[in-house]
Give the backbone structure.
Amino acid sequence: MLHSTRQIGDMAVPYLTNQLLQEQDNTKGTMKSFSRRRILSAGSMLAATAAVGFPAPALAREAQGESTSKLKVVITGGHPGDPEYGCGGTILRLTELGHEVILLYLNQGEPVESAARITGYRMEESKKACAVLKARPAYVGQIDANAVVDQSHYFQFREIIEKEIPNVVFTHWPIDNHADHRAISMLVYDAWLHMRKKFSLFYYEVSNGEDTQQFVPSDYVDISASEPKKRLACYAHASQAPERYYALQDAVARLRGIESGRTRAEAFVRHVQSPRFALPV
């Protein structure tokens, strides 16, 4: 499960410490003796809490097999296919955990003069891809290769994000050769600021070298097992030369796997000021 760890310093340490302090003999004002095993056990629990990002009570609930609330995840992309290529394996891992995942595309992938002339074939591809990943497609409504970032579009995008009330949002790394990728990244960042940084903010990479530039990860997700379905989701975008672009993205996944000690991995940068969010391990 995924949990915010923003309050770990305020919550986990007092929780464990209080378990020991409860042993205090109030009548004599002295502490009962502790065995080495009990002290080491408490220390191990604290270490595990810090490592995986769980507040201690939540960790205890997970150990007991109790259910916890599901989270809302929004993964944005400039076009249909971008979230699937950049983090399709992570999307599948999140949905398999029972979390609600929305793939929010800036446009519908067709370079036309207006939304009224869109044929819908890219939308059908994105629906097939989302079905593979168990996610829900959504669209901002801009036009492919004609992204607009101004005050009115900032406001429109904020309204979309505010209605979703996400726990975490993923978007393109802003140093990117494609204007649509840069645009959605800026819109997400503006919404994050106006929502007082309430949701976790992660950046992902896509088509490194051709699109994403100068990406240095802070987090990794093992996608060794979820890669086959990620491939299916990407190939659902049949009009977009997946035989070429998937090979490039899979090379990136193999590189990130080498970096993180896995067969394949997807990499992310978490904004340092955003709430912590435990990615699937």
Observations:
- The chain has nine helices and nine strands.
